[in-house]
Design brief:
The complex is a heterodimer.
Chain A: H1 2-5, H2 9-18, H3 25-59, H4 62-66, H5 82-113, H6 117-132, H7 135-146, E1 157-159, E2 162-163, H8 168-192, H9 196-203, H10 209-220, H11 222-238, H12 241-247, H13 262-266, H14 272-279, H15 288-313
Antiparallel strand pairs in A: 1-2
Chain B: H1 2-6, H2 10-17, E1 69-81, E2 84-96, E3 99-103, H3 110-117, E4 127-135, E5 138-139, H4 145-151, E6 152-155, H5 166-171, H6 184-197, H7 201-204, H8 217-230, E7 235-239, H9 247-260, E8 265-269, H10 273-279, E9 282-287, E10 290-296, H11 297-302, H12 307-313
Parallel strand pairs in B: 3-8, 3-9, 6-7, 7-8
Antiparallel strand pairs in B: 1-2, 1-4, 4-5, 9-10
Helix pairs in contact in B: 6-8, 8-9
Classes of the chains: A mainly alpha, B alpha/beta.
Chain lengths: ~325, ~325
């Protein structure tokens, strides 16, 4: 009784960390380190958020968000980060629009068809390899591919026969590879968790595989897919290497060609990540205060995406007995 | 939480073993609230059961008379999964106006037989099939499989409504792929009728738009019946439809089954022999893939011809 009555409140916590009733010394040390690690992680997260909050509120202003960045060594003359913010949003939308359908398609094919099984295994390892490849490697590879002359419509022709290979299109395509494995994984897990008899119930009503996938399986995996997409968007928002190599990380968004809209996508630009890098003390170090403000906005976007994931996964999805 | 911990007898064991310096892991002890109920043997004591306590007579649900019309038949149906023979040369008839119960111990092939009738077995890559299955005299292999499955509906062991509204679940089988989409108004009479036939309409008529997965297990299973009935099947296959349900839901579903048998030929696989007695007209007993005995329900349960059947229906194995 006594040991357990204590288990509420700090004294009980202490007695548990010390090892409760009959724990061996190894177990006590293990438990104590687990507690310590957990608390440390919370402290680190809190420190990041609080520090960025402090810095962010100190330097952030609406003017920064709504003005274009300008060249200038003086912080008072270097403008805001409207262009990087637009770049982050545009790149995220492009990459997600590519990654979501392709990722869901791959997941559906792997779980519902998966034949020939050799090809399915190859696709699985392919997804794993893409997931494990550093984004800078993906970026260099992208440059190699998209500088081919016949792909110049995705960026623009730098010299005759050679494409420039840097644009929102190109960066978005390679960026989609970063989100793809997360979407494939989440969608596969969601599809796997649907019991076989649910599929069979649809077949037993005279439906074929396609309509079963469209009308039953995909709606039932909406949560899983949504979670994967939101996590993937988080990765896209946070990536720097691909932006530096494939988007140019220019000061301002720089449209190319005469067609409005399309010219934006064919042109170069930057995102919040490269803006932070370029203005931070480790980069060119032009405007550290603006770097903090932009980093704060970046953090807000990522936290908002995490919140969306929480909203999606909260509550219960469809549940059947196996 | 604390009161629960107290029941674990922690203090008692602590005092007992305090001297030994170590404590055993907590053991949960439960004190019985009342002495167990034990049935006392009859006083006449000669081991014979008095007349009043004799085994209850066969209980059957009251059923309307319906003419039996043959709808499906299997001829020397043989199904194997790889090397393993699951169904061995079974010939059976399925008639409208009757309920046919397939009984037998686990692994006897009754579910495989049932799933072959709407060619759901074809989905198992290792399955091979011999013999013939006829629907109204036509070989089912000649049918388009989606067309066959509209005529031969199926209900599963676990309720499995789709993640959509009650209305959409019932309308699911009626909605066609492609451009011609029947409107909700056009579907409504068929949906309502199917819910009526499954005995669910009164319970759900006010919330047809609610998600089907929020219904209780018994309601979900009746919704699945309604979903099958909506496409107007001629044969309905039931694979242990009540095994996941409570007795009250089971009773409702059994009544539904008996009421449906005049319009639809029904085959039910069940582990529950009492259920087979209650709902079936004919019973097929299978054992290790073989059809051992087929006959009217009274005959199979009270005067089985085969020794195996006698042992099984009297509880000798199972």
């Amino acid at each position: 009784m006594s040991a357990h009555a204590q288990s509420r409140g700090p004294a009980g916590l202490l007695s548990r960390v010390r090892g409760g009733d009959s724990w061996s010394i190894g177990d006590r040390i293990g438990l104590a380190s687990a507690w310590a690690a957990g608390i440390l992680l919370c402290l680190i997260a809190a420190a990041i958020v609080l520090y960025m909050l402090y810095r962010g509120f100190q330097y952030l202003s609406l003017e920064l968000i709504f003005s274009h960045p300008e060249a200038g060594l003086d912080q008072s003359k270097s403008g805001g980060f409207l262009d990087p913010l637009q770049g982050t949003l545009a790149l995220t939308v492009i990459a997600t629009l590519i990654a979501a359908p392709v990722g869901v398609g791959i997941a559906v094919w792997l779980t519902e068809y998966g034949r020939p099984s050799g090809l399915a295994r190859a696709v699985e390892s392919g997804v794993e390899i893409v997931a494990g490849t550093p984004s800078i490697v993906l970026a260099i590879f992208g440059l190699l591919v998209f500088q081919q002359g016949f792909l110049s419509f995705l960026s623009y022709e730098a010299t005759p026969g050679v494409a420039f290979g840097r644009s929102f299109f190109v960066a978005g395509m390679i960026m989609s590879l970063i989100a793809l494995p997360l979407i494939v994984g989440a969608a596969r897990e969601a599809l796997h968790s649907i019991p076989r008899h649910v599929r069979e119930a649809s077949y037993a009503l005279g439906k074929d595989r396609i309509s079963t996938i469209r009308r039953v399986l995909l709606p039932a995996s909406r949560r899983g897919i949504g979670t994967g997409v939101a996590l993937g968007m988080g990765r896209i928002v946070g990536d720097t290497a691909i932006v530096v190599v494939l988007l140019g990380a220019t000061l301002q968004n720089d449209p190319h060609g005469g067609i409005p809209g399309l010219s934006f996508l064919q042109g170069t630009g930057s995102t919040l990540t490269t803006y932070v890098y370029n203005n931070s003390p480790v980069g060119e170090g032009g405007s550290p205060e603006k770097a903090y403000a932009a980093a704060f906005v970046l953090l807000l976007i990522v936290i908002a995406l995490n919140f969306v994931v929480d909203l999606i996964t909260r509550g219960r999805g469809p549940s059947w007995t196996r | 939480m604390d009161s629960l911990r107290d029941e674990r007898g922690m203090d008692a064991s602590r005092t007992l073993l305090a001297g030994a310096g170590q404590l055993p892991p907590p053991v949960r002890r439960i004190a019985p609230a009342a002495p167990p109920t034990i049935v006392t043997p009859p006083p006449n004591g000669n081991g014979r059961v008095p007349a009043g306590l004799a085994a209850p007579a066969l209980k059957r649900l009251p059923r309307p008379d319906a003419p039996a019309i043959e709808r499906m038949r299997t001829e020397a149906l043989t199904i194997a999964y790889g090397e393993k023979l699951a169904v061995n040369a079974v010939s059976l008839e399925v008639r409208q106006g009757e309920v046919l119960a397939l009984i037998g111990p686990s692994g006897c092939g009754k579910t495989t037989l049932l799933r072959s009738l709407n060619r759901l077995v074809d989905l198992t890559p290792t399955a091979v099939r011999g013999g013939r299955i006829l629907l109204d005299g036509e070989d089912v292999d000649g049918f388009d499989v989606t067309h066959l499955r509209r005529r031969v509906g199926m209900l599963f062991q676990q309720p499995n409504p789709f993640p959509m509204s009650i209305f959409d679940n019932v309308a699911y089988g009626l909605r066609e792929r492609g451009s011609k989409k029947p409107s909700r108004r056009a579907l409504e009479p068929a949906v309502t009728e199917a819910l009526h036939r499954a005995g669910l309409f009164e319970e759900v008529k006010d919330n047809l738009e609610h998600p089907a997965l929020a219904l209780s297990g018994g309601q979900q299973q009746r919704l699945c019946i309604a979903r099958s009935l909506a496409v107007r099947p001629e044969v309905l296959l039931l694979d242990e439809p009540c095994s996941a349900l409570d007795p009250i839901s089971t009773a409702t579903i059994e009544e539904t089954i008996v009421a449906l048998r005049s319009e639809v030929a029904i085959v039910i696989v069940t582990h529950n022999l009492q259920q087979a007695q209650r709902v079936a007209d004919h019973v097929a007993f299978m054992y290790l893939g073989d059809l051992i005995e087929y006959g009217e329900v009274e005959q199979v349960f009270s005067a089985p011809l085969a020794e195996r059947t006698r042992e099984y229906v009297s509880g000798g194995f199972g």
